[in-house]
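As a next step, the fold was encoded as tokens, giving this record:
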Amino acid sequence: MVFATPAQSRPRFASVGPRCPGRTRPGFTLIELLVVIAVIALLIGILLPALGKARATAKSARCLSGVRQMGLAFTLYANDSKNWYPLIPFNQTAKDRWAGKSTNGNRRNLDQQWINGGLAGLFSLNQLGDPTYPSYKPVWVGGDVGEGDAAEHYADKNSTPLMRRYIDGLSALTCPSDRRDPVMNHTQNNYSPASTNALVLNHVPKPPGGEHEVVYYNISYLYFAGLKTDESVIVTAAPIFGDETNGNDLTTNAYYNGDGLFRNDDNHGNEGGQYVFTDGHGAFVKSTPGDTIQQRFFGNGNTQAQSINVIDKYRSERIQTLD
């Protein structure tokens, strides 16, 4: 007789319960999928505005940093120039105006700061710009600056851009929030307050990669020429450099003869712009109808606390706005 051992009598496979052939793991129902999609859409709707606002805040902070950097460069220049922030060297007309000739009441007046291409003229004497616009490259008549001119120089024959020694890069000339700058027809000697040529096209400004790319439509800012780091007649720090507008602000029409208002398509919308002041601090300055930046700080006849005309009511005649 053969007896089975315990190992032999043990079943080879343990039973796991009854099986249901063909049964699979259940998936999401249509209702569950719709609920998930609705939740995701809700989260996107909540997060996108917050992300957009955070992005705008970051760009504004970068703009303010660049503006303050430029203010420091201008101050370094002024330290070497008897406290004067940079001025385009005077031609004869500018000298006559500064001497009080042919001006109202024979008072000194700052003029002709636009002759080398406006603000760009502080940084470049070879403003070739974007090759996409070959017909609209600035050509400065009179022998001072011009494309292909072997003697690109200021009226005093200096051929070195004034700010070359004081700034390492040129990217701070373009605001990261700037989406539009008009390209005008400057093929003639019309880069002046009397310019009437129509808008040619809109350009998205790009940070200049070199001096040849420094041209008005790649610059997002304007500069108030004619100020000093320390003046006894100016009791409150004044803005020297900050956001321009896309409105009536070609050369001396910037703020001074324009309305000074920002629009929705300007660097930071219609509320105002980032500015650096003569005491070195930077801040966002609001500009509203009846209280624009131009009126508050530089308006003729304005002698309120923040105006540069508090002591000398004609001080604003000795500055000129460049963009």
